[in-house]
Write a structure and sequence with these properties.
Order of helices and strands: HHHHHHHHHH
Largest sheet: none
Number of helices: 10
Helix content: 55-70%
Strand content: under 5%
Number of strands: 0
Shape: elongated
Oligomer: single chain
Structural class: mainly alpha
Number of domains: 2
Length: 184
């Protein structure tokens, strides 16, 4: 892991030469503090994901990245295929008809995020309010997914069919007494 962080900083030094020396100069103490910070925050990612994220940043940006940009890049390269970007996941969650659990989802964490945010909120709140809340929960699930957790939608069995004949007064009284005895 330490080698990966050192390799990333070496790549950034070569690719963002002037910016790198402007940020760190010849001050190895400052550079080492930055490396320790990055090491602590990137510990949930593999060395391979960190290096691929650095290469992605170098290919897409002409500026020396912040730790925030590096975390975003690590999430992007480490996500399994088929997992939608946060806004697409939000739109998927908002547009599924009910019953939600019976629908086909692109990934289980899209369903779980929407469930945790609340179906009513997603259906009725303005996007400016609902989307940031959705993204915060979704990122938590994505981070857990990257850390190796697996998620599935637990579909509960349907309730058994009931008879169409109502209970008699005696049966209702017996059920009430049974319930009452549970709380004594």
């Amino acid at each position: 892991m330490i080698d990966a962080i050192n390799q990333v900083f070496a790549l950034f030094q070569v690719n963002y030469h002037n910016q790198y020396y402007s940020a760190f100069g010849d001050n190895t103490r400052s550079e080492n503090l930055a490396k320790k910070l990055w090491l602590g925050r990137l510990q949930n990612y593999t060395s391979d994901a960190i290096c691929r994220a650095a290469e992605k940043i170098i290919a897409e940006s002409e500026y020396l990245p912040t730790l925030h940009k590096m975390l975003e890049a690590c999430r992007a390269v480490g996500m399994p295929s088929g997992l939608p970007e946060a806004r697409h996941a939000y739109l998927e969650a908002c547009n599924k008809p009910s019953p939600k659990i019976e629908q086909s989802w692109s990934h289980a964490i899209v369903y779980l995020t929407a469930r945790d945010c609340g179906w009513y909120t997603l259906a009725n709140a303005k996007e400016a309010k609902a989307l940031p809340a959705f993204i915060a929960v979704y990122r938590g699930y994505c981070d857990a997914l990257l850390a190796g957790e697996s998620f599935a939608i637990e579909r509960t069995a349907a309730l058994p069919e009931t008879s169409a004949v109502p209970s008699s007064a005696a049966q209702r009284k017996k059920h009430l007494l049974d319930l009452h005895s549970l709380f004594e």
